[in-house]
Write a structure and sequence with these properties.
Number of strands: 9
Number of helices: 6
Strand content: 25-35%
CATH class: Alpha Beta
Largest sheet: 7 strands, mixed
Strand order of the largest sheet: 1-2-3-6-7-9-8
CATH topology: Aminopeptidase
Order of helices and strands: EHHHEEHEEEHEHEE
Number of domains: 1
Structural class: alpha+beta
CATH superfamily: Gcn5-related N-acetyltransferase (GNAT)
CATH architecture: 3-Layer(aba) Sandwich
Distance between the termini: 29 Å
Length: 182
Amino acid sequence: MELKLADKKSELLEILRIQKENQSSNLSIDSANTNGFVTVTHSYEMIEKMNSRAKQVIAKMDDQVIGYALVMLKEFEDLIPVLIPMFETFKKIEYNGQKLDQLNYYVMGQICVQDHFKRKGIFKKLYEKHKEEYSKLYDYCVTEVSSSNLPSMLAHEKLGFKTIYTFTDQTDTWNILLWDWN
């Protein structure tokens, strides 16, 4: 398996394929509860724009993308309408006595591994690659996970993410998780 930063159109398209396969709306309740799911849908234009500013982390096997972990910089807070409440919340909450929005962080925009590669440590390896590539530039990695996505919550906590805030919007109850690299 190879961990790398996406640098080809074909890799970005494969991210979108895996994303579609794992959309909560495309999964049975049992599969979503067992394997987790993704909520946000990106267009190719969105993912290309994000990748132009910070390369997306991918896992490949036999030249095929089998997992990804997206990098979403603060500057893209208006790119995906469903994520605007998350970014607005960042402006209101604090971590270690400072407004989260004032800290040096980026958002891990979504992480997903193809079903038959799950539970093989790829989730952890994708995040280790994030840390290797982006801890030189940022102090924190922040993400948001649905309270109903227990597999993802447990995996993030096991890695070292801490829940720093929970809120409910029109779509779900969300946990804002922070990985402190200091």
